[in-house]
Amino acid sequence: MRLNNPLDCALPQPGTPEAIELGCTCRVIGHDVKLEEAAPPACCRPPMRIAPSTAPPPSSRSMNSKWRHPHFHLGLIVLIALAAFFLIRMRAAGGATVAETNISEGHRLAQAWCEGCHVIGPQLLDIVGEPPSFQAVANQPGMTPLALKVFLRTSHRNMPNIVVSPAQAEALASYILSLKAR
What we know:
Layout: H1 6-9, H2 17-21, H3 60-63, H4 70-89, H5 98-113, H6 134-138, H7 145-153, H8 166-178
Helix pairs in contact: 5-8, 7-8
């Protein structure tokens, strides 16, 4: 009586040419012994078949598929938009650069705060006894933006005590140094 074991039904009888071809060297006569729990000896088990891989080999098409992914295109569009934004940001309205905008802001501040005492525009000659013109300040040897910003942020004896923010000091220094004789 044969067992209804799926492994058992595929096995040839021990000692037959089919069993020897499979590598079975056992001489057990009864693979069909009434051992309900027992499995056939390891040498009599059929060889395991490994299913072939279903994944296609990498090809140039599959390697380039990342370039066709919609998220890649969206990311590329966002990157281009950010680059364009920053390039446009470098130019202020009306085609003026950020430095030119800073200079015009400094001119506006100089008109509001400094014009009562200083000549804020270009001037040919300085008047003795009067506060120096902005052009004369800009033409002093060693005058740098940092020196002007420090000067503008500290109080002085013959000047009103105006509180100047760092951005305003930067704008005023840019305007004053734009008057420097070239």
